[in-house]
Design a protein that fits this description.
The complex is a heterodimer of chains A (247) and B (83). In chain A, 44% of the residues lie in helices and 20% in strands. Chain A has two domains: 7-139, Sandwich (Jelly Rolls); 154-246, Winged helix-like DNA-binding domain superfamily/Winged helix DNA-binding domain (Arc Repressor Mutant, subunit A). Chain A has nine helices and ten strands. Chain A starts with 6 loop residues before the first helix and ends with a helix. With 247 residues, chain A is of the alpha+beta class. With 83 residues, chain B is an alpha+beta fold. Chain B is built from one helix and five strands, in the order βββαββ. Chain B starts with a strand and ends in a 10-residue tail after the last strand. In chain B, 18% of the residues are buried. Classes of the chains: A alpha+beta (247), B alpha+beta (83). The interface between A and B is medium-sized, with 14 and 16 residues. Chain B: Residues 3-71 form the DUF6894 domain. Chain B: Pfam families: DUF6894.
């Protein structure tokens, strides 16, 4: 397990935060000098368990993770998917007991940052504290959109909306472009995230492929009809509050 | 674990399952087939007064083991002008 503080890895965090806010040189430096220990985790492994009381936050450097909760009879609800630059358990800084789990989807590299260092950082640089607050508010905005999807949209609308959302999130941290992005999420994951049966998820994906809206080969998603997917899923990217897009 | 294939049809768009899934038992496959039906209905309704949704289970030899059908039958109880 490599454990030296890794300034290169923290660039991922700077990059992400700059996708939703502007940072000064001094603020960037302060983030880059956070102590972080990196670890490589296998796919489908828990990072933090429901009920844990973590003393560190975890920054995703590489790979995909998700937040989820297990129910009876092996049922699982996924709340969110996370990509490099995200700190999916940032809330543990203020909510001391985890009320859900965080796990890997793919193999993932994560950097652990002690809570103490995160607190010092936001005390010394209140504006960074505000940016982290902004990030958790965007997180909440994403939950609201998922709620609209699960409560009111068709399976087609939910899946199309998630494709648009993840594509823009990945594009904001330079991990996607030309309507093409990595897509390591299985049909089972997709169903567990959107409240759909696996069989129906498969039907909708086949329908989308059949209509030439997307292609999904290997682990790559290509959105062939961006405007049509946006229209069909009533996708309005405002809730992602991406700076670059607004500019 | 046995592999079963779940084919579905909403009356407009039939989907043949070419990949299949591993299930602990054929009953588990039946549960999966039944769970798909309300999702399929939610996607399509309202749309007309007659619609049939089916989900069937095939085994690896291609034998159809089970078919579940969910039907919509709508009927007006007062005269309607069709103009």
């Amino acid at each position: 397990m490599p454990s030296a503080p890794d300034t290169h890895s923290l660039n991922t965090l700077v990059h992400k935060l700059q996708s939703i806010a502007t940072l000064s040189d001094e603020e960037r430096q302060a983030i880059l000098s956070l102590p972080a220990r990196t670890r490589i985790l296998a796919p489908r492994q828990d990072i933090v368990h429901d009920g844990d009381k973590p003393s560190q936050c975890c920054l995703i450097l590489d790979g995909w993770t998700c937040r989820y909760k297990m129910l009876s009879e092996g049922r699982r609800q996924i709340f969110s998917f996370h990509i490099p630059g995200d700190i999916p358990d940032l809330q543990s800084l203020h909510l001391h007991t985890m009320d859900h789990s965080l796990g890997t989807i793919t193999q993932a590299t994560v950097a652990y940052i002690p809570h103490e260092s995160m607190r010092e950082l936001s005390t010394r640089f209140p504006r960074i504290g505000e940016v982290l607050w902004r990030d958790t508010l965007v997180d909440a905005a994403i939950f609201r959109e998922w709620m609209i999807g699960m409560g009111r949209k068709s399976a087609f609308g939910r899946i199309a909306h998630l494709f648009c959302e993840m594509y823009l999130k990945l594009e904001a941290v330079d991990l996607a472009g030309d309507h093409r992005c990595p897509w390591p999420i299985t049909q089972v994951d997709l169903g567990d995230a959107l409240g759909l049966s696996n069989v129906h998820t498969n039907r909708v994906l086949q329908e989308m492929r059949g209509k030439g809206l997307i292609s999904l080969r290997g682990s790559t998603l290509v959105i062939q009809a961006w405007d049509e997917l946006m229209r069909a899923s009533e996708f309005d990217p405002t809730y992602l509050h991406l700076e670059k897009r607004a500019a | 674990m046995p592999r079963f294939y779940i084919d579905t049809d909403d009356g407009v768009f039939p989907v043949r399952d070419d990949v299949g899934h591993e299930f602990a038992s054929v009953e588990a496959a039946r549960n999966m087939a039944q769970r798909a039906l309300p999702d399929m209905a939610r996607q399509k309704l309202p749309d007309g007064e007659r619609r049939t949704f089916t989900a069937s289970i095939r085994d690896e030899n291609g034998t159809v083991l089970y078919v579940a059908t969910l039907s919509l039958v709508g009927e007006w109880m007062v005269p309607r002008s069709t103009a």
